[in-house]
Amino acid sequence: MSYPYLIQGSNITVVIGNVPHTISKTHLTYEKVKDAIKAGDWETVKDIIEPKKIILSYGKGNVSVQGEQLFWKGKEFHSALASRMIAMLQEGFTIEPMVEFMENLMTNPSKQAVTELYGFLEKNNLPITPDGCFLAYKKVRDNYFDVHSGTMDNSVGNIVSMERNEVDDNRNNTCSAGLHFCSESYLRSFGGERVVIVKINPRDVVSIPTDYNEAKGRACVYEVIGEVGSSDEDTHAAFSQAVQSNASNNTYIYPVAAPKLGSTAFYLGYTDGFTGSLYNPDYSSMTEQRNYEEGFDKGSEDAFDEDAPRYQYVEKETKPPVSGAWPFPNEMG
Questions:
Q1: Which of 7, 20, 89, 322 is the most buried (most CB within 10 A)?
Q2: In this structure, are 52 and 90 located in the same domain?
Q3: How many CA atoms lie within 13 A of 258 on its CB side?
Q4: What are the tens digits of pLDDT across the range 137-174?
Q5: Model pTM?
Q6: How many domains does the chain have?
Q7: Start-to-end C-alpha separation, the chain
Q8: Domain around 36
Q9: Integer Cα distance of 267 and 294 in angstroms
Q10: CA-to-CA distance for 53 and 41, rounded, in angstroms?
């Protein structure tokens, strides 16, 4: 079943059940709706425009999603974290690591930390681990002891801790007591000969100071899981290779969905583009030629970006003519 639609300027309007739905080009689902229309995948078009009103539960059951709303223990939750999780679902990503992060975060007794932490991570490009913790940087002395007191050993594998009530929870006190962690940008502003990677549970974060453009934080516990070189190149690559080999189970490999199968011009164009075949829009209809071209461009882009294929062309199944003549396939031995 197809739906009436109109693509005009920067908007797509689709009519489902006599109700028009307009998606602007700035909306995150615009390209997905456009691709689904060109592929003739009307079920996906409807699912994107009219999300199923079922409630999906995650993790321990504390996190649930209904449409574009996220709930914590049945209460709607508004935050940068909730918005990111909804966007990830709409883009087809799994949100299990984010759910684990949220489960940990919500056990933090500080309302301010709960409100501010995810925005700090996103702003400073600090990754979340599958078990719901996050990774950050820390500068230490050449012997791995902390720069300030020289009493805390930050060798790889050590867990460093202090009493939570000894950590300054006033974010306006920019240089104060606590176990410090930071973003890459802050490293140039602090002394120390070595850079280590620390793994922190969100529940153990106490405050995000306001200085240095909110590029550092204070916690009461962290685990030292790796070390990177002192050069900018080494530091920038810390979370892609060097640290991952030292960290314990701190990367998540997203499952690759099987490509959608179809026999339209868009699917053929996509498959030709993805596999590097010759551009061959052999269609008499201008609409089908445009759909082939659109699919070919998208397939070429995905192949260039080394993405998994999203679509795959298959020949239409043709039923053999019914006849009383030989051969009789059901009677052959």
A1: 89
A2: yes
A3: 4
A4: 999 999 999 988 889 999 999 999 999 999 998 877 87
A5: 0.59
A6: 3
A7: 41
A8: 5-95
A9: 10
A10: 20
